[in-house]
Amino acid sequence: MLGVFVKAALRPGMVKPCRLVRPVTQVPERSLVHQEGLPKLPVPPLKQTCERYLAALEPIVSEEELEYTRKLVKEFLTGGVGERLQKGLERRARKTDNWLSEWWMQKAYLDCRMPVAVYTSPGVVLPRMHFHDRQGQMRFAAKLIAGVLEFKKMIDTDTLPVEYLSGKPLCMDQYYQILSSCRVPGPKRDTVVNHTKGTTPITHITVVHNFQFFVLDVYHSDGTPLTIDQIYMQLEKIWNSSLQTNKEPIGILTSQHRNTWGKAYNNLIKDKTNKESVRAIQKSIFTVCLDAPMPRTSDELYWSRVAAQMLHGGGARWNSGNRWFDKTLQFIVGEDGTSGLVYEHAPAEGPPIVFLIDFVVGCMSRTEIVRTPMVPLPMPMKLRFNITPEVKRDIERAKQNMNIMVHDLDVKVLMFSEFGRKFPQKHKLSPDGFVQMALQLAYFRTYNICCSTYESASLRMFKYGRTDSIRATTTGSFKFVQAMQDPSKQNTERLALLRAAVQTHKENTYNAIHGQAIDRHLLGLKMLSIDELTSMPEIFMDTSFAVAQHYNLSTSQVGSKTDCVMSFGPMVPDGYGVCYNPMDEHINIAITAFNSCEETNAAKFSRAVQDALLDMRALLEDTATV
C-alpha cells in the first residue's frame, strides 16, 4: 500500500507506503527460498544521478537557481568530493547486504521525532460493514483475528507465496517483520523490537476496549489456534470486563512527540506492574482495538471521517486512547460498523500490509462461525497500570496534543466513480501515470506552479530493499499541464504531451524499481559525508536541494484487490498526502492536508483532482473521435 529523508537531504520520518507498479504475481513455494540469491542494491553511476537530479529540478526551481546548482553539481562531479564519496558508497555496498537499509531505517523512521500517528503511520479503511451493535462488532473481530492467524501460519511454516515482478523473485523479508513487533521510544532515537526471533513462541494478541488492554491467548496448549467461536466468547468476556468508561487512556501516551513519549515511557516503566503490562503489548502478535461508535455523519462524509479515525482515533474523548500507536499492526473494529487498521511504518512498507488485508478479507468471506465444543477457556488477563500523578500529567498533555493534531488534520476521501484503471488501459496509457498526471494538473491549476512530487516505489527486487522515489514532476508533465491551461493549444497537441509525460513517468518508475533513481543515492552520499565527519558538500546545502526535498505532493498507489482506502498525513506543513487505489471501474483517493496551513485545503484539491481526471478523459475521448 505503505518514505523519506534526512534533514535537507531527506526529511526524517515523512515516509509513505510504497508500490510496485506492474502486477505482482505470487507463486506457491517456500517464501525464503530465493532470499540468499537476491541481488544487492546497486549504487547508481554518479554522473547519471547528477544529470537526473538536474533534470528533476528544471520544472520546480527558477532558471537562476538552476544555473547556480549546475555549477555546484559540476564541482561535485569533477572536484574529487563526489568521486571520493561514491567510492566510499561502493565499498559499503560490497561489505553489506544492503548499503541503504540501516541508514534508511534510522533516518526515515527511528530518528524522526514527530508523532507516529498522522505523520508516519498510514491508516486503512476496509469496506463498510452493516453491523451496529457489540455482537456484530465482536463477530467481525473474531473472524478477522482468525484470518490473521491463518496468515501467521504461512509465516511460521514458510509457506507464504513468493512474489515475482517481471519474472524475478522479490525480497520477502518485510513479511517476517510485521507480527510480534513494536517500536520502542528512546530519548533521541527509537528502536524496533521483533519478538518472533525469541526462543519462546508468542501466543497472545492484545485487545483494547474502553482504553483498557487485555492479553488474549489465541492458541491452545497443543499449539492449535482458537476457533472463531472461541475467540468470540473470549472477546465477550473482555467486553464485559471493561464496561467502565472512566479509565485513564494510557495508550494515548504513544501518540506524543517521540522525545516527549521517550521521557514519559521511561517514567511509566519505572513501576514493575507497568513495565510488565507494556512488555505484554509489545510482544503481542498484533493488537485489536474495539472502538466505541463515533458521531454519525452523512454518507458523503463517511469515508473521510473513518479515514481520519484510522489515522488518529478521532480525539481524546473518542478513540485516540484506544490505541498503542507503537504497535506495528493494530486492527480497528468499531461498534458502528467501521473497520480498518493503522500500522507503524518502520518495519515494513505497504505491499506486505496490502497482501495481509487481501488475504484476511478473503478468509473472512469464506468462513462462518461454527459452533465448537464448549471448552473452558481462561479469562483473558487485564493489563494493570499504576497511574502516578506524573503519569496522569503526561496523559493530560498527550490528550491536549492529540486534540490539536486531530483538529489540524484535514481529510477528504474522493470515491471517484466515473472510471477506473480500465479506461487509461484501453487508451494504452499506464493507469498510475495517468493518475499522477491528473495530480500534476490539479496542483498546477490550483497554485499556478509545479511542485516537488514524491511517489514511492519498491526496491524489493533487491535483498532487504525498501523504497526509492519516483519524481512525478518532470519537464514533460510541466509541458502537459501548461498546454491544458493554454487556450491556443489544440487537443491533439495536448494529447501528445500527455502521452509523452506518461511515458516518461513509466521510464522513471522502471529506473526507480531497478535501483537507478536519484533520491536514495543522494541520501547515501550525504550520509557518508556525515559519517566521515567531513564538511558537507555544497550541493546538499543548496536552496535547490531543499526545494527538491520539500514534497508538496507526497503520493502513493495502493494496489489492493480489496476495495479499501489508505491514507497518510502530508510530508510537509504546506503539502498534501495523496493515496489512491485504482480499481477496474473506480478510483479511491484519500487526500490529507493541515488546517494550520492557509494555502492547502483537502476538499478543494479533491475537486481539482476530480476535474482533472474528467478533463483528461474528455481529452482522450474527443481526440479519439477526431
What features would you highlight for this structure?
626 residues; alpha+beta; 8-stranded mixed beta sheet; 6-stranded mixed beta sheet; 18 helices; globular; disordered N terminus
Question: How would you describe what is shown here?
Answer:
This protein has 626 residues and is an alpha+beta fold. The chain is 42% helix and 15% strand. It is built from 18 helices and 19 strands. An 8-stranded mixed beta sheet has the order 12-8-7-9-10-11-2-17, with helices on both faces. Helix 13 (431-447) crosses helix 15 (491-513), helix 14 (475-484) packs antiparallel against helix 15 (491-513) and helix 15 (491-513) packs across helix 18 (602-625). Mean pLDDT is 91; it is low at 1-22.
At a glance:
The chain has 626 residues and is of the alpha+beta class. The protein has helices at residues 46-57, 63-78, 81-95, 101-110, 134-156, 228-240, 258-268, 272-283, 299-312, 350-366, 389-408, 422-426, 431-447, 475-484, 491-513, 519-531, 543-549, 602-625; strands at 25-27, 123-125, 162-165, 168-169, 181-184, 191-194, 204-209, 212-217, 287-291, 329-334, 339-343, 381-382, 409-416, 453-458, 467-471, 553-557, 565-567, 576-582, 587-594.
Number of helices: 18
The major β-sheet equals: 8 strands, mixed
What structural category characterises the helix and strand content? alpha+beta
Mean pLDDT: 91
Radius of gyration in whole Å, from Cα? Answer: 24 Å
Shape, principal axes of CA atoms: globular
| Oligomer state of the chains in this structure | single chain
Strand content: 5-15%
Order of strands, main sheet, comes to: 12-8-7-9-10-11-2-17
Helix fraction?
40-55%
Strand tally is: 19
Low-confidence stretches: 1-22
Distance between the termini: 39 Å
